[in-house]
Amino acid sequence: MSIGVCYFPEHWPEERLEADIEQMAAAGLEYVRMGEFAWSKFEPEPGEYDFEWLDRAVSLVGDHGMQAVLCTPTAAPPKWLVDEYPDVRQEEPDGTVRDYGGRRHYCFNSPVYRRESRRIVEKLANHFADHPAVAGWQTDNEYGCHGTLHCYCDDCASAFRDWLRATYDDVDDLNDCWGTGFWSQDLNSFAQVDPPRHTVADHHPSRLLDYDRFTNDSVVAYNRLQVEALREANDEWFVTHNFMSHDGLNAYDVAEDLDFASWDSYPTGHVQAHHESVSADEFRAGNPDNLGIDHDIYRSMTDAPHWVMEQQPGDINWPPYSPQPADGAMRLWAHCAVAHGADVVAYFRWRRCLMGQEQYHSGLLRQDGEPDAGYHDAVEAAADLDRLAAATDDDKADAATGDVALIHDYDNLWALDKEPNTPEFDYWQHLETYYAALRRRSVTVDVVSPTTPLADYEAVVAPTLYLADDERAETLESYVDGGGELLLTMRSGVKDSYNKLHDAPQPGPLRSLVGATVDQHESVPESLANTVEYAGRQFDSHVWNEWLVSDDDTDVLGRYDDGPADGTAAVVRSERGTGSTTYVGTWPKPAFADALVGDLLDRTGVETTDPLPDHVRFTRRGDLTWVANFGGEALTVDAPADATWELGGETVGAYDVSVTDAAPSALSIREESR
Fold this sequence. Notes:
Layout: E1 2-6, H1 17-26, E2 31-34, H2 39-42, H3 52-63, E3 67-71, H4 79-84, H5 111-127, E4 134-138, H6 154-167, H7 171-178, H8 205-233, E5 238-240, E6 242-243, H9 251-255, E7 262-265, H10 267-274, H11 280-285, H12 288-299, E8 307-311, H13 329-339, E9 344-347, H14 373-391, H15 394-397, E10 404-407, H16 410-418, H17 427-440, E11 445-448, E12 459-462, H18 470-481, E13 485-489, H19 511-514, E14 516-524, E15 530-534, E16 537-550, E17 555-560, E18 569-576, E19 579-584, E20 586-588, H20 590-604, E21 616-621, E22 624-629, E23 635-638, E24 645-647, E25 651-652, E26 657-660, E27 668-669
């Protein structure tokens, strides 16, 4: 459990280097990430290389007892490369070329750019292959940032056709699977297929979904060529990539080639990007569930603990508003990361830059080199983690697996993105509705891909399995037959894997699990939001309603009690084997989600707490529990008399954290703190 920092030695006078690295070591930092975006420094002219400046930085990092994480510089190709090979640039759907001047303007499918990327990565990897201070590498930087996953150039057109040839038996098979008879879209050959460029009206949803899949595979292949070059140079290095929050890239696929996943955490920016309304506390510290779900996605991707490769150090330049984080927030975020299973938290960046597009992005140091608030938080966090490491059983430190799985599926995300059917429908927000309900009960959640084995989980929550086939149904049926408790939600079993409606009523192949069919569905504005009677109480729901017709042996747990669906089933439960499936046909608001998840957990025997306030979370890792307060007022925790507080105590200040050996189920928030 370590603290690190992102450093750009090429941005500062050479005489500053040793003083910076001495100060990093004195602060208790253990990892220094360097080299991303530095291609023009590494290779100022074609074939002329300069690694000396990074040699010196890496050696000083090692001399001061730290380790270097180096980055491949491919996210920002130099001007000479773009001038020599202009076709490496991306094109937008209308043919507009994404020109030089920013970053991430290269095409993943450009054969030239793949060749040039492999060349610079090999040069760097071979140069540093025997350097003892280099611990590992980050490939590229934030694949897809700035909306750059998709490109529509001629190289992509050719690669897409090849991808389709490998995916389908022949063009007749493609026509059948897509359903190209609609709007005269039948194809006579794969050569007729173009990327979904700018057109009138909407593109065919099956074509769009396959283009997302093709694009994702293109990123996987591009990343793999870098990983292979790095491992050929030194197979003892770790290799990772820094993914983004609530991303559209299927990180599960990319992570198959990595040793562990990393991601870039900016809580006060992400809450603005992902939530429609943001509270005063969230502007200062973010939202614990919006933050936690990303940790649990990337934690669950590999067998190794994940990293935070970029941690927000203070105010940042890119969200709509950039309030100063609350005192202690940067330390709180580091603890939140570690509690969710991270082994390293690296703050971005060491010092506020004097030039370029990120001058309004803070660092641990101010622009004059003096410590900023983030520096003090990072120093304190590093000392905290050293203290906790001494109190932690090493065999349990990596244990951050959950009793409950939340299924998260990029295919569903992509398909629903194309046809949300209402402005308010957002896959990520629906996922977070159930994640937050689980976390309010202090459950450790594994956010997993659909291919993850489920047998070891006491409960599985699967929000909106929009695309479902017989294989998916059989997997879930086997889980329930074996005693599992499954919760499915609205808009499940709607389409097949090619993004076409099933020829049977929703939920299609999931019908035998659910024990009901969907008679009607509707999307509703907030002015038509309705209530549901569930377990003798009235609850609010919104956005989407399905009117369910249940089988005779299916229990109706909730009914709409207003509007045209009045009296119609909204929530049903069907027993099967030694388990059961609950189906929720509407989007529950938080209190309703708490009730649904609470009943699910009660049937499993999973240890939980009473629902916590929205700003408080208990998180268990190994033999320690973190109590995180994302709110602006202090709170008091009731704990067993024999509980040991390894950090802090029963009073947890505003935007603060305490750590105890007591299990979450043994803790509660004192009533006056609520």
